[in-house]
Specification:
The chain is of the alpha+beta class and 90 residues long. It has helices at 16-29, 44-48, 60-66, 70-73, and strands at residues 35-37, 75-76, 81-83. It has a three-stranded mixed beta sheet with strand order 1-3-2.
Length: 90
Amino acid sequence: MARIIAVVNQKGGVGKTTTTVNLSASLQQLGKRVLLCDFDPQANATSGVGVDKNTASPNIYDVLINGADPKKAVVSTKHCDVLPSNKALA
């Protein structure tokens, strides 16, 4: 059964990205299939798993605004799969 885990808090600097990246990598190491969806225009989760936030294309912006196929936007890394973000989302 699939589970969705959301890490949210309106305050900045409380460790949301750090928690998310580490939780994703840990679950992947346990053999779970993980998709990290980065909806932050700073894209630190994207770069945190080793994806260049400046060149990842298509990305979540392209999916939401330009109708790109989300499956084509997913990038596989050794840490987990990620749906990358970039500053265009701002």
